[in-house]
Amino acid sequence: MHFRKLVPLAVVLLLVCALPGCATGGACLDDSTPPERVRSIYIVKRGGHTGVAIPSADWPNRNWSLLAEFSGSDLLEFGWGDERFYQAEEETLWLGARAALWPTSSVIHVIGIRSPIAANVHAEDIVEVRISTEGLRRMAEAIEREFTERTPVATPVSLGAAPKPNHFFGARRKFFFPRMCNWWIATRLEEASCPIAPWSVVTAGQVMRRARAFESATEQ
Fold it and tell me: What is the pLDDT of residue 208?
């Protein structure tokens, strides 16, 4: 790609990164939601990447094969990214540029976590977000659909060499700017009725600020 084509792209990237998330304030559930229909999920930040961790016991589809594969885990964390960059031992500038500037194959990283999450996850930040059972159902169904069509969703194909409880699986989408890893997490939050505009999300910091705002609104 020519340099003069890269300049406008860089300007757009800087402008989008400066946005807080382009969504109105508010919680991810109505004030009238009864306590028995409220569930907790967790947004996890590691460097420039975010993931969403969901208690296995709350997963709506009890027949999903991934629950059995990670049967010793109390939570499942899901992240999404470029197939080569996400699994690379060393994340080079070239791999990062390739992932952002060209549509590339993607993978979903699933991590099995034991409770309590704060004591068993090595992360820079973890934010609890409360959503409704209906919001969780929509999020869970969407995550299941994200797995590759190369095999049935019930038995996704493992692509990574990482041992359990960390494993990579083929994903449907192509990875490219601005649809990158943090956009994917913002999209999951939007599916759970959280007031967020995924198209405006690029950085992990944007995701965490919105997640913290959702939780603050819930506590008011």
Answer: 97
Can you tell me the distance from the alpha carbon of 70 to that of 76, in angstroms, rounded to the nearest whole number? 8
- DSSP 3-state of 125: strand
- Per-residue pLDDT tens over the stretch 177-205: 778 899 999 999 999 999 999 999 999 99
Structure tokens at 77: 């964390």
- Among the listed residues 111, 120, 85, 105, the one whose alpha carbon sits nearest the alpha carbon of residue 163: 111
Determine the Cα–Cα distance for residues 104 and 84; give it in Å rounded to an integer.
9
Task: Work out the angle at residue 41's Cα, subtended by the Cα atoms of residues 85 and 152, and round it to the nearest 5 degrees.
Answer: 55
How many beta carbons lie within 10 A of that of residue 87, not counting itself? 17
Please name the residue that has the structure tokens 């947004």. Answer: 43
- pLDDT tens-digit readout, 41-51: 999 999 899 99
Angle at 167 between CA 163 and CA 169, to 5 degrees: 140
Question: What does the alpha-carbon distance between residue 189 and residue 197 come to, in Å, rounded to a whole number?
Answer: 9
